[in-house]
Automatic annotation (TrEMBL):
The lineage of its organism: Bacteria, Bacillati, Actinomycetota, Actinomycetes, Streptosporangiales. This is Transglycosylase domain-containing protein. InterPro entries: Beta-lactam/transpept-like (IPR012338), Glyco_trans_51 (IPR001264), Glycosyltr_51/Transpeptidase (IPR050396), Lysozyme-like_dom_sf (IPR023346), PBP_transglycosylase (IPR036950), PCN-bd_Tpept (IPR001460). Residues 733-753 have a biased composition (Basic residues). It comes from the Bacteria. It comes from Nonomuraea rosea. It catalyses: Preferential cleavage: (Ac)2-L-Lys-D-Ala-|-D-Ala. Also transpeptidation of peptidyl-alanyl moieties that are N-acyl substituents of D-alanine; [GlcNAc-(1->4)-Mur2Ac(oyl-L-Ala-gamma-D-Glu-L-Lys-D-Ala-D-Ala)](n)-di-trans,octa-cis-undecaprenyl diphosphate + beta-D-GlcNAc-(1->4)-Mur2Ac(oyl-L-Ala-gamma-D-Glu-L-Lys-D-Ala-D-Ala)-di-trans,octa-cis-undecaprenyl diphosphate = [GlcNAc-(1->4)-Mur2Ac(oyl-L-Ala-gamma-D-Glu-L-Lys-D-Ala-D-Ala)](n+1)-di-trans,octa-cis-undecaprenyl diphosphate + di-trans,octa-cis-undecaprenyl diphosphate + H(+). Residues 729-753 are annotated as: Disordered. Residues 356-618 form the Penicillin-binding protein transpeptidase domain.
Length: 753
């Protein structure tokens, strides 16, 4: 009946109504008899309701505890049901936009005539002429437009557009109940300040929700809809003054309709706007955790699971209204950020990055870097910001990565243990090695390099006996080059691949003799995930940031871990046993997190980069350090990083301390747990000729101070040679740990411990 009343009202609204109707219809009809017929056809033979595309809504990123840390949107909108909108807000929007909304059927002739008279007398817009349903139609046509031409047509200020709009409005009234129309209008309307829909407007204007709006707040938002740009409160005082006038107009209208008392209206009008403008940043640059945000964003845009085409995936991310639950742990994240920023300044060209990964799930718990994410002033390449996702690979917005150094020795270690080597097994090593024979890649082709000469790093000696254990603890280059040759280069490569080792740039791994010394460029997420597999007793899990996706309809899609048993449990247990010794007897001696841990340092040839990768049964992490301008052109020698000077940066001197300082706080709520012991019947024992005698001699020298000048004078001598930092000279080894400094040497393509 309401639609019929609207149509009939065109002819019975009085003389002025007839004039208005004629003005609407005259331009599109001609002839007396034909005019009546066309009018009847126009308003009785209605089209289907307009096509409604899903409204663009905000996609939100949540941490593991459900707290939002980023959002993406094309339009800042969160659709809500009518029941989630305060009743006073519903009354206010109806009062000012269409007071007879619940009485007419899409066209309110009486209201249109009244608005025409009111606005003419006032000399401006005081009341709207279109019904609320007509306004909804206009918004639907604009939202669903697929081109600029369609959008312009939906906004065109002509009578043809008004006729089309009216016919669609009548069709909508037949399709939906009044409350359904009001709900759609409240969710589609633009309120200003970038807020689309009443929920986003409540958050943006007053830092509240639509369900908790007060009388004054509801009147403010209702007043903003008519002129959202000239009353945008984020633009300044002039706009806020106009917004207050509109608010007071709504309050008067509510009182005139007896929706509120005159006293309530007067009290609300006497109050200030009381705005609490809440920023609604979009994208990763303004996120609390930008590097993690960027990783998730790249995953959404590149993974075909989220859409068949790039355009479809981007539209789903920016318009889909998704809720993305991630595995980000704010405690671990803040711990990583604090440790990095304590040691490395954002303005340094040397950059540090860290990723933390949970064993058995692959869930990425933290991603941090020493630089802030974003563009530097003037788009300068060097500065406190970067647009590279430093903890990640190229596919997730990262750079080319840094050579992983001696962290790759763990793959050779695992391969040797798999082939039956025991902890005590070893051999004599020379003072230098030319990899001229015995190395074949996985294609069966010889990849020997007779033109290279590999030396041990400083502190490893000029040669001698080493076992699986001592060769690992001291990170002896020549020992591991020889061990790789004995167990087979291809076998080591296969072990690395099974544990997720892939280059940061996505290219194939370089299968060369110095593979075990870490010549491949890696990223912290990938390295942390590989080491997490040892903590998980051989189970490798792909790095995972997205845990669950909740659609706008509430449907939940869980993203399970992608894991497989990459190496046998006993092998992983044996690797853990050896790598624990890195803290007790090796390159990280003197540095501890106060609970069982295992790990491996990595320092590259020429000090181009430095790493530390380590883990506990509950968490794995990898830290990289290198110069963002280019690791080969700018090695980590004679550099000031943060407030410390380094003669050379090694795995134990900067990445190691960052790892220690971050892992302790990250695990503060996790009960300490040890690693399962190795199968000593399988891995215990072994023999290395001459090792026992060499260790005894080393211990004797250690008891005697190991240097005719004594420890204190020795530190001075090493500082003069550039082998120690000033920190060591002053007797403050906390920052660098008790590591062995590495002098400059002429070595080609060889990584260091």
């Amino acid at each position: 009946m309401t639609v019929l009343r609207s149509v009939c009202g065109l002819g019975v609204a009085g003389a002025l109504g007839g004039v208005l109707t004629a003005a609407l219809v005259a331009p599109v009809v001609s002839g007396g008899g034909m005019a009546a017929m066309n009018v009847a056809n126009t308003f009785v033979d209605l089209p289907p309701a307009p096509r409604e595309e899903p409204l663009a809504q905000v996609t939100r990123l949540l941490d593991k505890d459900g707290r939002q840390f980023a959002q993406f949107y094309e339009a800042n909108r969160t659709a809500v049901q009518l029941g989630a909108v305060a009743p006073i807000m519903r009354k206010a929007i109806v009062a000012i936009e269409d007071a007879r909304f619940y009485e007419h059927g899409g066209l309110d002739v009486r209201g249109t005539v009244r608005a025409l008279l009111t606005n003419t007398q006032a000399g401006g817009i005081r009341q709207g002429g279109s019904s609320l349903t007509q306004q909804l139609v206009k918004n639907i046509l604009v939202e669903s437009a697929r081109s600029d031409a369609e959008r312009d047509k939906a906004r065109a200020p002509n009578l043809a557009r008004k006729i089309t709009e009216l016919r669609y409005a009548l069709a909508l009234e037949k399709k939906y109940r009044k409350d359904q129309i009001l709900e759609r209008y409240l969710n589609i309307a633009y309120f200003g300040a970038g807020a689309h829909g009443v929920e986003a407007a409540a958050r943006r204007f007053f830092s509240t929700s639509a369900s908790r709006l007060t009388l004054a707040q509801a009147a403010t938002l209702a007043g903003a809809v008519r002129m959202p740009y000239s009353t945008d409160p984020s633009l300044g005082r002039a706009q806020q003054a106009r917004l207050k006038l509109r608010r007071d107009l709504v309050l008067d209208r509510l009182a005139g309709l007896k929706q509120i008392t005159p006293q309530e209206a007067a009290a609300a009008k006497s109050a200030p706007l009381a705005l609490r403008l809440r920023p609604e940043p979009g994208g990763c640059e303004q996120s609390a955790y930008p590097f993690y945000c960027l990783y998730v964003q790249r995953e959404l845009l590149s993974n075909e699971v989220f859409g068949n085409t790039a355009a479809e995936r981007r539209a789903r991310m920016t318009r889909g209204g998704l809720t993305i639950r991630t595995s980000l742990d704010p405690i671990a994240q803040r711990a990583a950020e604090r440790a990095i920023h304590k040691n490395v300044d954002p303005a340094d060209t040397e950059v540090a990055a860290e990723a933390m990964v949970e064993p058995l799930t692959g869930r990425i718990r933290a991603m941090a870097a020493s630089k802030r994410f974003g563009r530097n002033p003037g788009n300068n390449k060097n500065g406190p910001k970067t647009t590279f996702n430093l903890p990640a690979d190229v596919a997730h917005g990262g750079g080319q990565g840094f050579q992983a150094g001696s962290t790759f020795k763990v793959f050779t270690l695992a391969t040797a243990l798999q082939q039956g080597w025991r902890f005590g097994d070893g051999f004599q090593t020379p003072g230098e090695l030319v990899p001229g024979q015995g190395y074949r890649n996985c294609a069966g082709r010889a990849v020997n390099d007779p033109d290279s000469r590999v030396l041990n790093a400083g502190g490893e000696g000029s040669g001698g006996p080493h076992s699986i254990e001592t060769g690992t603890w001291k990170s002896v280059n020549i020992f591991y080059m020889m061990l790789e040759r004995k167990v087979g280069l291809c076998n080591v490569v296969r072990t690395a691949k099974s544990l997720g080792a892939v280059r940061a740039d996505g290219r194939a791994l370089k299968e060369v003799p110095t593979f075990t010394l870490g010549v491949n460029e890696m990223d912290p997420v990938t390295v942390a995930a590989s080491f997490a597999a040892f903590a998980a007793r051989g189970v490798y899990c792909r790095p995972l940031a997205i845990v669950e996706i909740i659609g706008r309809d509430g449907r939940r899609t869980h993203v399970p871990p992608a894991c497989e048993q990459a190496i046998e449990r006993p092998i992983a247990d044996a690797v853990n046993h050896v790598l624990k010794g890195v803290f007790d007897k090796g390159t990280m001696h003197g540095q501890s997190i106060g609970r069982p841990a295992a790990g491996k340092t990595g320092t590259n040839n020429g000090y181009t980069s430095a790493w530390f990768a380590g883990y506990t049964p509950a968490l794995a992490a990898a830290v990289s350090v290198g110069d963002i301008r280019g690791s080969y052109r700018f090695p980590l020698q004679d550099v000031k990083i943060g407030d410390q000077y380094f003669g050379s940066v090694q795995g134990a001197s900067l990445p190691g301390p960052i790892w220690v300082e971050s892992m302790g706080p990250a695990l503060r709520r996790v009960e300490p747990k040890g690693f399962p012991g190795p199968n000593m019947a399988r891995f215990g024992g072994g023999h290395t000729p001459g090792l026992e005698k060499a260790l005894a001699e080393e211990e004797r020298k250690k008891r005697q101070g190991g240097h005719p000048m004594g420890p204190r004078h020795r530190r001075l001598f090493e500082w003069l040679l550039g082998e120690r930092s000033l920190d060591h000279l002053l007797g403050s080894p906390r920052r660098h740990g008790h590591h062995r400094a590495v002098p400059r040497e002429r070595i080609r393509r060889a990584a260091r411990g």
